UniProtKB/TrEMBL annotation:
Annotated binding of ATP, by residue: 301-308
GO molecular function: ATP binding
SUPFAM superfamilies per the UniProt record, alphabetical: Fic-like (SSF140931)
UniProt-recorded name of the protein: Fido domain-containing protein
Record-annotated Fido domain positions: 200-358
UniProt-listed InterPro entries: Fido, Fido-like_dom_sf, Fido_containing
Source organism of this protein record: Rhynchosporium secalis (Barley scald fungus)
Active site positions, chain numbering: 297
Keyword entries, A-Z: ATP-binding, Nucleotide-binding
Length: 375
């Protein structure tokens, strides 16, 4: 099931794994000299969060819009987007209701402040990177659990966390090897290990989802692009494979390649603008491309899970944080309503951005508390 509808628009044949759904995804720059080294290299995420935080080196404005002297060596300034939106409670029954700009300045400034505090704590402590890695792995596993829960897939939280963290750490011999048959065989064996026959499908959803998450994060290391122009090739909906979110039809199969190329080009343009102007709102940026992707709905199945992987890939790169959408029952329903409204109006990330900012703040508070306890 995808987030914009209580029921999956298309259910035909065996469900594809997330890795199978985008074998050609290139989340690094195809021109990067390091790309060929990453391909085929054994890799796990253990130790990958130890080189600076946030990953994209964020600056922090004070209330007068000035950058404090102590952070001038960093690269980007956090600046709140004007695209945050909120819908009245009766929008689900009154189709004439329109969204309104949401004032999230208090939440944004609080999040901005806590990122600054964590950054200072990380600089002051040698062990901070290890503590951060523990929290990041846990939050990534929660994100997998929440994303699967939205689609009514996967396992319980405890088992999901155990499986995911093993993959992220490269334990069980599961060091990541890009598009390797050996790696896929290890994943398959891990799925079957100590598992009853009826549990294999649910366990496979978790393992493949975690592997897809790792696949994306390998490609967003420093100096690499988020998406390349030939991403997701060859796996789109085709022919008469239409998809609907409620009464609204997503992009027609014949128009998907153009829509996806446009998405990639716009993201690359946005990133170039961020680098040129040295300002960004990572929460709105992530929500924007999550929303755009799911409203294209390029695949027969799994669009919601992939869009949430993209969301977290951008957040990890530019804010050093993971958000788990749908982990709790109420959040799942809220996310589905937000996605449904976006589809109804033809796509708008404003309310999703507001939710992402809210969850990101909670995750950052957890990281700060962990660092404080172990300081």
């Amino acid at each position: 099931m995808d987030p914009s509808s209580p029921q999956s628009p298309i259910k035909k044949g065996k469900r594809a794994s997330l890795l199978e759904m985008f074998p050609d995804i290139n989340l690094g720059s195809p021109s990067s000299s390091s790309s060929s080294k990453v391909l085929g290299a054994m890799y796990c995420l253990k130790g990958s969060f130890s080189q600076g935080w946030p990953p994209a080196s964020v600056l922090f404005q004070n209330s007068q819009g000035n950058v404090p002297e102590r952070t001038r060596a960093l690269n980007f300034t956090l600046r709140m987007s004007q695209d945050y939106r909120v819908y009245p409670d009766n929008w689900r029954t009154e189709y004439t209701i329109v969204d309104k700009p949401a004032d999230v300045s208090t939440s944004f400034q609080a999040t901005q402040g806590i990122i600054s505090e964590i950054s200072e704590m990380m600089k002051a402590r040698d062990s901070g990177a290890n503590d951060r890695e523990v929290v990041m792995f846990e939050e990534m596993a929660r994100a997998v659990f929440g994303s699967n829960s939205i689609d009514r897939l996967g396992l319980g939280l405890d088992e999901t966390m155990r499986l995911c963290i093993a993959i992220f750490q490269g334990s069980e011999g599961l060091d990541y090897n890009e598009r390797s048959e050996i790696y896929q065989a290890k994943l398959d064996a891990y799925v079957k290990k100590g598992t009853k026959e009826g549990e294999k499908s649910s366990r496979r959803e978790v393992v493949q989802h975690a592997a897809a998450f790792q696949h994306i994060l390998v490609w967003i290391r420093p100096n690499q692009e988020i998406l390349a122009s030939k991403s997701f090739g060859g796996k789109y909906r085709q022919g008469n494979e239409k998809a609907f979110g409620g009464a609204n039809e997503y992009v027609k199969p014949s128009q998907i390649p153009v829509a996806m190329n446009s998405l990639v080009e716009n993201l690359q343009k946005d990133i170039a603008e961020i680098e040129e102007n040295a300002v960004l709102d990572p929460f709105m940026l992530a929500a924007n491309y999550c929303d755009r992707f799911v409203n294209i709905h390029p695949f027969k199945d799994g669009n919601g899970r992939v869009c949430r992987l993209i969301l977290n890939a951008i957040l990890i790169k530019y804010a050093g944080v993971v958000v788990s959408l749908g982990e709790k029952g109420g959040e799942r329903d809220e996310y589905l309503f937000i996605a449904a409204e976006s589809t109804r109006v033809g796509g708008h990330p404003g309310q999703l951005g507001k939710k992402v900012l809210e969850i990101a703040y909670g995750t950052l508070r957890k990281l700060k508390m962990t660092l404080s306890r172990r300081g």
